[in-house]
Amino acid sequence: MQRSNLNVLIPRMNSNKQIIEQFYTAFQQLDYKAMQACYSDDIVFSDPVFLLLRGTEVNSMWEMLCKNARDFSLNFSDIELIDHEYATCSWSASYTFSRTGRKVVNNIKAFMKLKDGKIIEHSDGFRLSTWAAQAFGWKGVLFGWTGFMKRGIQKNARRNLAYFIQSKNASQN
Length: 173
Known about the structure:
By secondary structure, the chain is α+β, with helices and mostly antiparallel strands. Helix content is 50%, strand content 32%. The protein has one domain (3-126): Nuclear Transport Factor 2, Chain: A.
């Protein structure tokens, strides 16, 4: 790589790391507006619970999760800049799952693509069966690995998000 190209990449990589730090610092504070500011308008997000979300769905998901968080704490580490576009990091969220009142500690690996100072793609990876075991107790331990329970969790999460978006839109009109 030519030296002039390297000089351009180093500041961009540092700013990408700062964007990721800003995102998770805002998440620690449950500041969904600051989290949303780190995303591009056409953000694409995926995880094992919500599956694929785009744009305003992503922003609404974080708003819903932040507003409904109970006994919440978050740690993030190991931000790794793979090149001028891609990054990964590890994060762990601890909270009380509102539906069952059970404590959940979710360890997650995030994969992000950044462009022009914004996150344009964000994918979180974790074992849904491990999450289900914590969130639902013995039912999650016995059935959390099954497609039936996973689809039920996903369907419920999407339904809750649709209801949240609908309620938010109704209150704005």
